[in-house]
Write a structure and sequence with these properties.
By secondary structure, the chain is mostly helical. It is built from 4 helices and no strands.
Amino acid sequence: MRRTNIYLDDEQLRALKHLAAEERDSVAVLVRRAVNEYLERHFGDNADWAKRFDALVNRVQQRLPAGLTADQIEADITAAREEVGAARRAARSGRGARGR
């Protein structure tokens, strides 16, 4: 868990402290609970996210040629990243030469 700072107006903080005392909890616990509820409303629960992620992985796997190994996939990705990086470096050096 990471520490963060938030700004609340006096009324919000007073109400949270009052509620925390009633529930015998801390303000931090109440804030985390509220944030979790907000995120769940906007992004759904983890089970839904996991189902969508699994569906994505399945779609990607269906596109792969049969018999392709993990090492071959990693080599292809590495080669593609190096190719893109080389193209970007070439484009930057071309711009630098024109700018002189």
